[in-house]
Amino acid sequence: MTGKALQAIRDAEYILGNDSYLTPVSTLLEGKKVIRSSMGKEVERAKEAVSLAREHVVAMVSGGDPGVYGMASIVLEVAEHAGSTARIEVIPGVTAATAAASRLGSPLSGDFAVVSLSDLLTPIEVIEERLAHAFAMGIPVVLYNPRSRGRPHNFARAMEIASSYRGPATPLGLVKNAYREGEVVVVTTLGEVAGIEDQVDMHSAVIIGGSESRIWKVGENVRGIITPRGYHRKYLY
User: Which residues, including other chains, have CB under 8 Å from residue 100's CB and lie 6 or more apart?
Assistant: First the structure.
């Protein structure tokens, strides 16, 4: 979380959010009017926030960055539909792509693509098409919502699409619970991804390296993943 996000929570009268988002900030909720809701209730939560914002200072808590697969869009859509004149500020956070990348070294560095494998709001056919285009570009690809109990096959399908554009030695990084309790960091390759598939879940981000990405090793010790930004083509070092 950014310092500004923490201050927004401190300043708010009402705090709204999914319980999994509110638990990590529980120490900041004392004296606040807290409204908790479950997954699948995003529209109702947004409507309540917009309604309360007419007369109160409201903070909608969202995981990662609220503008990246978060609550910002639905809150703004609801406010637009309701004709709300309340002041609304979207405060940035750290999205899973950059949080996970920092734990893996520097696997992104330049251009990269982010695709969610959740087909709750996007048809799987559209997701598959986006994956094909993303992998065809040769840039690193970050997968959000990679694997759940309800749709365990989407991740396997994504790996099939990746393998049609990338070789088996392509670096692949898994980061689960980045910067949170129970953090897991794994560096492997696309050809060996089957060995870690059981570890992939909804708390994970998976980064598949681009055409120039490589695994950095010192002896047999894996230090992380590097995707060169291009300095080697212009400078000697």
Answer: 142, 173, 175, 178, 205, 207
Phi, psi of 28, rounded to the nearest 5 degrees: -95, 0
Q: Which two tokens stand for residue 140?
A: 């690193």
CATH superfamily of 3-82: Tetrapyrrole methylase, N-terminal domain (3.40.1010.10)
Greatest extent of the chain over all pairs of C-alpha atoms, in Å: 62
The topology under which CATH files domain 96-228 is: 3.30.950
Give 46-105 as a DSSP string: HHHHHHHTTTS-EEEE-SS-TTSSSSHHHHHHHHHHHT--S---PPP---HHHHHHHHHE
Residues 201-231: tens digit of each pLDDT: 999 999 999 999 999 999 999 999 999 987 7
What are the structural domain ranges in the chain?
Answer: 3-82, 96-228
For residues 187 and 69, the answer to whether their CB atoms sit within 8 Å is no
